[in-house]
Amino acid sequence: MSEKWDKESILSLSGAFQTCRILLTAAELDLFTILSDGPKSVEDIARDKSWDERGLRIVMDALAATGFLQKSAEGSYSADETMLKLMAKNGSQSILPLVLHRNRMWESWSKLTEIVKTGSNPNPLGMASRTSEEVQDFIDAMHVVGSVMANRIVESLDLAPFKRMLDVGGASGTYIMAFLRKAPHMKATLFDFPRVVEMGRNRLTQHGFIDRVEIVAGDYTKDELPSGHDLVLLSAIIHSNSRDVNRMLYGKIFRSLDPGGTVLIRDYVLDESRTNPPDGAIFAVNMLCATSAGDSYTLKEIREDLETSGFVSVNLIRNGANMDQLISAEKPR
């Protein structure tokens, strides 16, 4: 159901960016990590970091006013256990990589008005244009987002028929680990850009899965996909592409799959009005800001493109509202 708006709620939303920006700046400055070893004064932090004392004081007072920090009567600042756990770099449940990713989204979303006027994105955020630090933050952010969802997705699937999966754009192996954890009989191949697969190798080694995973570096827009798989996963990939690029990708998957094999697509799947799920419609705006041709797609569009590539039995097998929808399709035997 659509949100009901009035004067107060519209004005509140239009000003909500201020608190958001303060938190993003705190993340960019890594203030919570700085405070992880105890309370500190503005003077101490400014001196250690060579930052402006006035600017830092104003931001830290605002963080205290909004409850992100605490300020003592003596003027020192601290963060409580929950904030350190979530927002410090070394926090046990750190979401800092995802918050830093959203800080970069702030920059791309700031171009939205001009993109709508011109129909052109001057700086799409492709992987090739990111610095090594930005790639690491993005991959870590996707792991933060994906860890819980991957387990939910996998629990809804029967993996008994499958022997070997290919994760296209598999990043650091978050979904591969969830699949292999549920299905001890399976092996997997992780396919992604060269500098990304090394992050995957590290994470898979750390969690004890590397012996069951082949690492293949490549670019699906240029390279054919490795063969010998009866299951291919496209997790949060197709929204970055135009339909033309997705049809090209589906064709490569079709050629790489064993006869009778299955492709699984996890993404937002919009209804025909393109307004539900609402988060999917908003995510399409994110793709407008971050890519040159990405979008959120409807089931009809995805089915048409898969069938054009030779797939049959295209079905929505899992519905949801949080990019947890799943489409399956089969390659005929």
Automatic annotation (TrEMBL):
Q: Which residues form the O-methyltransferase C-terminal domain?
A: 109-311
Source species, domain of life: Bacteria
Its BP terms in the Gene Ontology are: methylation
Which of UniProt's keywords are assigned here? Methyltransferase, S-adenosyl-L-methionine, Transferase
Record has Lipoprotein as a keyword: no
Q: What are this entry's molecular-function GO terms?
A: O-methyltransferase activity; protein dimerization activity
Entry-linked InterPro entries: COMT-like (IPR016461), COMT_C (IPR001077), COMT_dimerisation (IPR012967), SAM-dependent_MTases_sf (IPR029063), WH-like_DNA-bd_sf (IPR036388), WH_DNA-bd_sf (IPR036390)
Name the residues annotated as catalytic in the UniProt entry. H239 (proton acceptor)
Task: Give every O-methyltransferase dimerisation domain span.
Answer: 12-79
The family database entries (PANTHER family) matched by this protein are listed as: O-METHYLTRANSFERASE CICE (PTHR43712:SF2), PUTATIVE (AFU_ORTHOLOGUE AFUA_4G14580)-RELATED (PTHR43712)
* Protein name as it appears in the record: O-methyltransferase
What taxonomic lineage is listed for the species of origin? Answer: Bacteria, Pseudomonadati, Thermodesulfobacteriota, Desulfomonilia, Desulfomonilales
